[in-house]
C-alpha cells in the first residue's frame, strides 16, 4: 500500500511539475517572446506566437499525463492502453501546432508576396499546397501512431503504393491535366486577367487557372474551357507581358497613280493625332507590295492597352477614309479587263 502511495505521489508530482512548466512556457512566450517579436519588421512572428501558445501549454500538460501514466502501477494492460491514448492525443496536438504555423506562413505569403510578379506560388496554388502539406503531415502523424503500436507500416505503404499506381493508370489523362496545371501555376506564362492569343488565333482574357483546365473569356463574351495539357503543349502569345503595349495594323490599297510618300506621311500623321496611340514606339507606314489593282500600304501603331485596339482601329479607319477623300487619294476597286474577241467565221470548203 505504501508503494502505491509513493507511485501515486510521484505521478502527481510529475503532473504538477509539467503543469507549472506549461504555465511558465506560456508566460515566457507571451511576455518575452512577444517582446522579441516586436523588434522584427513583420507581424508574422507575433501571429504565430498568438496561435501556438495554447498548443504549447496543452502539449506540456499532456506530456505530463503521459509520463505520469507510465509511472502508475495500473493492472494488466491498462498502462499501454492509457499511455497509448495519451500518445495519440500528443500526436494530434503536435499536428495542430504544425498546422497553425503552416497556416500563418501561407497567410503571410499571400498578404505580402502576391503583388510581386516573380512570386514562387500563385494565389490559386496556395490552397493546393496547403492541402498537400496537411495530407503529408497527417500521413506522418498516422505512421508515428502506428509505429508506436508496433504496426507493420511497410505493408501499409506498399498497399498505398499499389493503389496509387492503379489509380494513376486509370486516370492518366486527368493526372496529365493536373500536372500541366501545376506547371502553369509554377511557370506562370500568364496570370489571371492577362489577355492571351491561342495558337488557333483566338484572343481572350484569362479568368481562372484550375487544376484540370483554364478558363478564358473570349472577346465575344464566350467562355473557353481549355484542358491544361492542351494549353501547356501549344504556343500561347501573352499580349500584356512583359509589357501591355500592343501593336495594331491597318492595311490599305491606293491607286497606282498615287504619291506613295504622301500616302505614308498621311497615315503616320493620322496615327499620331489619335489620343490613344503611344509615341514610343511611334507609328510606322510601310509600302508592302504591288497589288493587282492597288499599291498596298500597311500602317503599324501601338497602344498601351490591348483592350483598346478595336476602338483605335475603328477611329483610324474612319479618319483614313475621310482624309483620303479630302486629298483625292483613290482607294481603287479590284479591276478586271475582259477582251472580247470577235468570233471568226468558219472557213468554207
UniProtKB/TrEMBL annotation:
Residue ranges crossing the lipid bilayer per the database entry: 12-32, 52-69, 81-102, 128-147, 153-171
Domain Mechanosensitive ion channel MscS: 173-240
Gene3D superfamilies: 1.10.287.1260, 2.30.30.60, 3.30.70.100
Source species of the chain: Pelotalea chapellei
Membrane topology value: Multi-pass membrane protein
Protein name: Mechanosensitive ion channel family protein
Record lineage: Bacteria, Pseudomonadati, Thermodesulfobacteriota, Desulfuromonadia, Geobacterales
Tagged with keyword Electron transport: no
Compartments in which it is found: Cell membrane
Amino acid at each position: 500500500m505504501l508503494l502505491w502511495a509513493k507511485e501515486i505521489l510521484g505521478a502527481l508530482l510529475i503532473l504538477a511539475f509539467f503543469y507549472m512548466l506549461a504555465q511558465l512556457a506560456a508566460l515566457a512566450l507571451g511576455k518575452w517572446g512577444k517582446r522579441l517579436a516586436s523588434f522584427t519588421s513583420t507581424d508574422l512572428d507575433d501571429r504565430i506566437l498568438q496561435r501556438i501558445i495554447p498548443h504549447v501549454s496543452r502539449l506540456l500538460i499532456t506530456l505530463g499525463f503521459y509520463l505520469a501514466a507510465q509511472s502508475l502501477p495500473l493492472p494488466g494492460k491498462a498502462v499501454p492502453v492509457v499511455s497509448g491514448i495519451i500518445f495519440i492525443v500528443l500526436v494530434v496536438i503536435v499536428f495542430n501546432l504544425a498546422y497553425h504555423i503552416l497556416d500563418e506562413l501561407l497567410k503571410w505569403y499571400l498578404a505580402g508576396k502576391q503583388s510581386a510578379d516573380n512570386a514562387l506560388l500563385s494565389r490559386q496554388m496556395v490552397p493546393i499546397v496547403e492541402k498537400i502539406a496537411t495530407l503529408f503531415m497527417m500521413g506522418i502523424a498516422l505512421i508515428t501512431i502506428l509505429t508506436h503500436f508496433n504496426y507493420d507500416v511497410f505493408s501499409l505503404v506498399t498497399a498505398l503504393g499499389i493503389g496509387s499506381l492503379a489509380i494513376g493508370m486509370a486516370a492518366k489523362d486527368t493526372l496529365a491535366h493536373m500536372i500541366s496545371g501545376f506547371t502553369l501555376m509554377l511557370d506562370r506564362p500568364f496570370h489571371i486577367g492577362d489577355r492571351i492569343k491561342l495558337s488557333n488565333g483566338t484572343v481572350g482574357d484569362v479568368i481562372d487557372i484550375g487544376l484540370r483546365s483554364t478558363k478564358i473569356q473570349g472577346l465575344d463574351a464566350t467562355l473557353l474551357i481549355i484542358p491544361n495539357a492542351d494549353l501547356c503543349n501549344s504556343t500561347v502569345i501573352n499580349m500584356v507581358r512583359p509589357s501591355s503595349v500592343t501593336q495594331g495594323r491597318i492595311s490599305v490599297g491606293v491607286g497606282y497613280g498615287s504619291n506613295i510618300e504622301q500616302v505614308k506621311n498621311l497615315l503616320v500623321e493620322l496615327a499620331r493625332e489619335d489620343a490613344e496611340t503611344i509615341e514610343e514606339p511611334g507609328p510606322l507606314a510601310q509600302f508592302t507590295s504591288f497589288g493587282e489593282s492597288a499599291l498596298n500600304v500597311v500602317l503599324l501603331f501601338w497602344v498601351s492597352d490591348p483592350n483598346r485596339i478595336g476602338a483605335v482601329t475603328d477611329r483610324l479607319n474612319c479618319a483614313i477614309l475621310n482624309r483620303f477623300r479630302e486629298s483625292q487619294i483613290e482607294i481603287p476597286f479590284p479591276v478586271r479587263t475582259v477582251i472580247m474577241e470577235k468570233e471568226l467565221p468558219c472557213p468554207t470548203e
